[in-house]
Write a structure and sequence with these properties.
- It is built from 15 helices and 14 strands.
- By secondary structure, the protein is α/β, with parallel strands linked by helices.
- It folds into two domains: 129 residues, Aspartate Aminotransferase, domain 1; 226 residues, Type I PLP-dependent aspartate aminotransferase-like (Major domain) (Aspartate Aminotransferase, domain 2).
- The strands form four sheets. It has a seven-stranded mixed β-sheet with strand order 2-10-9-6-5-3-4, sandwiched between helices. The chain has a three-stranded antiparallel β-sheet with strand order 11-12-14. Strands 1-13 form a two-stranded parallel ribbon.
- The N and C termini lie close together (9 Å).
């Protein structure tokens, strides 16, 4: 329990000795993983569509209920290959409220990302704003299931079909989530997963594309391996997007613990929900518990005006205490390069994206965070927000730390 004068940002000791991260890697049962690694070393088959990769693809496809899972070296390359495989060109409509890789995967291939605003209730692409952005150069739409909450898949599918556009999804946050009982992964022409170390399910580094299109899956398998169809027979343009066997072994081992990992995330979500109930000026993003969820992100939307302290000041206080909260996704792709130079006035069409980017903060969760940690984190947030104006004054240099004596009630 801290007083304002004891905050680490003002010279006090941090609340936590070790940093708490938003995305600490999940680790499988070690012996289980190492047995798989021993098999890889014995086989001397380290890459090029080995048995661990094939097992991982089969198990994920069965789990999600799709015909094909094409494993890749990372989620960004998976998205780039999916974009090229479906033939996107010209302009593609995407949200700006996403990790910058979503836009880069297009720009890298000289395709223009056209940024669409988001629905403030879902944080996902707003279909009501999307159609106004379609031009003769538009070839497709990439929806993002941000923080694991699904896009308006039916509406986007109707627009794409009616306007003859290709439809992909960046599902990097949505592995293990569902829409009306149907698992995310089977919508659009393909959906792209990330298995980066920060995700609740990881392959050390990796990704995959899920699809029910046999021809598209075959094309992507060629593209991830330089276009080779057997020895010495290149039949298509390609690159090196293959997942290695060690990464696949990590994924196979973690799949055995998937339910337990999600259960920890769900426990933490409910611990935050209970603890934040009495904390003013913040709203916790809710998950639909009637659906399958991975509960991977704890997202707060903060009312700066009511709190008297800014989101960035709150984050600075938390970081000093070793609570490594993040401003996901600030400041929006349209305010990063090269997009802010290419589209200097994009913000005029993205008021919700800009607003959300200024007021959202994500908090640590996962296996490295306990309910007791969460109670302390929320008590710290409560302290800052119930004394917001005083915190702001202290951090602005208008009050000596010794004068800041309020404590947590």
């Amino acid at each position: 329990m801290k007083r304002l004068a004891d905050l680490a940002i003002l010279g006090g000791p941090p609340l936590f000795a070790c940093p708490l991260h938003v995305g600490r890697p999940s680790v499988p049962e070690r012996e289980h993983f190492l047995r798989r690694v021993d098999g890889i070393l014995d086989r001397l088959w380290f890459t090029n569509d080995g048995p661990c990769v094939r097992e991982l693809e089969t198990r994920i496809a069965e789990l999600i209920g799709v015909r094909h899972c094409v494993a890749m070296c990372n989620g960004t390359v998976a998205l780039e290959i999916a974009i090229r495989a479906v033939g996107l060109t010209g302009e593609v409509i995407v949200p700006s409220l996403t990790f910058v890789a979503t836009a880069h995967a297009l720009q890298w291939q000289q395709i223009t990302p056209v940024f669409c605003d988001v629905d403030p209730r879902t944080y996902n692409l707003d279909p009501a704003r999307l159609e106004a952005l379609i031009t003769p150069r538009t070839s497709g739409i990439i929806g993002v299931h941000l923080w694991g909450r699904p896009c308006a898949v039916d509406v986007l599918a109707e627009i794409a079909a009616r306007r003859r556009l290709r439809l992909l999804y960046d599902a990097a946050h949505a592995f293990g989530c569902s829409v009306r009982g149907r698992m995310i992964g089977g919508f659009g022409e393909a959906e792209v997963l990330s298995f980066h170390a920060t995700k609740f399910f990881n392959t050390l580094e990796g990704g995959a594309v899920l699809t029910n299109d046999d021809e598209l899956a075959q094309k992507m398998r060629l593209m991830r391996n330089f276009g080779f169809d057997g020895y010495d027979n290149v039949i298509y343009i390609g690159t090196n997007g293959k997942m290695n066997e060690i990464s696949a072994a990590m994924g196979c081992a973690l799949l055995d613990s998937l339910d337990e990992i999600i259960a920890v995330n769900r426990r933490n979500y409910h611990a935050y929900r209970r603890a934040l109930a009495a904390t003013p000026h913040v709203t916790l993003m809710a998950y639909d518990e009637g659906e399958r969820c991975n509960y991977q992100y704890i997202v707060l939307e903060m009312d700066e005006a009511a709190a008297g302290v800014s989101r960035d000041e709150l984050v600075a206080v938390l970081w000093a205490e070793n609570v490594l909260a993040r401003r996901y996704f600030y400041p929006g792709c349209h305010r990063m390069e090269p997009y802010r130079s290419h589209f200097p006035h994009a913000g005029l069409l993205l008021p919700e994206t800009d607003r959300i980017g200024r007021c959202v903060v994500t908090l640590p969760t996962g296996s490295g965070v306990t309910p007791e940690d969460i109670a302390e984190i929320v008590a710290l947030i409560h302290l800052v927000l119930t004394h917001g104006e005083e915190v702001h004054t202290v951090l602005s240099g208008g009050l000596r730390p010794s004068q800041a004596s309020a404590g947590v009630r």
